[in-house]
Amino acid sequence: MLELLDVTVQYGSFKALNKMNMKIAKGELVVLLGANGAGKSTLFRTISGLNKPAGGRIVFQGTDIAGWPADRIVKAGIVLCPEGRMLFPQMTVLENLRLGGYIFRRKKELIQQRLEKVFSLFPVLEEKKDLPAGSLSGGQQQMTAIGRALMADPELLLLDEPSIGLAPLVVEQMFQAIQSIKESGTTILLAEQNARAALSIADRGYVMENGKIVLEGSRTELFANDDVRKAYIGA
Amino acid sequence: MEIFVQQVFNGLTVGSVYSLFALGLTLVYGILHIPNFAHGAFYMVGGYITLMAMTGWGVHYVAAVVISVIVVGLLAVLTERIVFFPLRNMPPLQDKIAAIGLMLFLEAFAQLVWGTEYRTMPTPFGKVVDVFGITVTVQRILIIVTAVAVMLILYLFLKKTMTGAAIIAMSQNREGAFLAGINANKIAMLTFFISGALAAVASSIASPINLVFPGMGHLVILKAFVIIIIGGMGSIPGAIIGGYILGFAESLGGTFISNDYKDLIAFVLLVVILTFRPKGLFAKEVH
To answer: Using the beta-carbon criterion (under 8 Å), do A105 and B180 form an inter-chain contact?
Structure first.
């Protein structure tokens, strides 16, 4: 579904991504592991069009989308739920979600349909729908961010550190939600610090260091790998 | 008492013009982070287009205002495309320099085409009427009614339409808006169109009680910056309320303190308000 071929991203002379290669098949949940600064967020920003690659190809369903503007990539079917959430803090939860369906703005029933899906995934959002997004707790804001991303009905959902800074109980809910998004047929690329939880719901994983993929494998392979256990699972 | 009521009415008139004008400035600043110093030049061009449509082509005042709104709106879109769009990834100083350059260019252009003399704009609404015991021209009532109507339409557009919501979204989180599938270019052009159109409305309704000349935007743009700083940079209610605060302060201060210092009041107000509210009255809360 998505294939990255020698993708390079530069900030000045620093190569944040250095000839990166990656492949995601339809229906997979792929986990991306890596320390802070490894380039995970840069990768996500580049796939979703917020950053422009200096070289390489990003092929999505047979089309090279490298360098496309972000809104066109959303229309193509890739939506990023970014690190830091990037909500519209003074707007209500409902307004945030509706804007997530901006590409369907002329199809009112479709927006309503998506909205019901999001509310059934995160019932608490329906209770809070008239509150400003900025007034919610961290976990609810994260749900709003994921909900907003789902409103565009993505084929490929990119989740950048959705559990960061959340209470353990909320993290657990978050992973359950991610799993049910996957079960509904959405392909997911997930970056996580919480490697154990992430790997346990994943099909495959990649390990990133210094802007490159250094290791890839199935869930069981990565769980069994000593380096991965030491660096990311802590056991 | 009568003088007081008269001055409150004047404040309402002047404030309406300030609010309309400052709204365009704050919209562009809030959404694109460009302090558009050329906004005063849009105001000036708006005045000239209305005047020329009336005197040159013999168009009715109201139709002339509509023409002016469209022309200046499109002019603003054009400047976004050829001046600000190519600078979008540059450091913010470049935008400021470009805006000043644009202002100088438009003023020189107006001098070349329309000359430097001061002109008066005729209005079919020059009749004098008595309202609530004070004597006013219909034009001044028209200013208030038009301004309030335009602001109401703008409010409904921003609040009730998806496109309006996209504009607000971009002012609250730019990248978040891109990720929601909002086309940054279209929103930037639309914002500039609205901004130019607001400047044209403001100058077209204010010109019959002022004068039309190439430098007519100078004092207005300075005061508009004061207004949006007082109101909180990028805040829409801040621009409206700031505009009226300044309008009242000027007309009351001009009468009861000294008319010579009328234009100074804006800046004294700025110093006082910033002393107590350094981020302005309606600064966005930090989350």
So the answer is: no
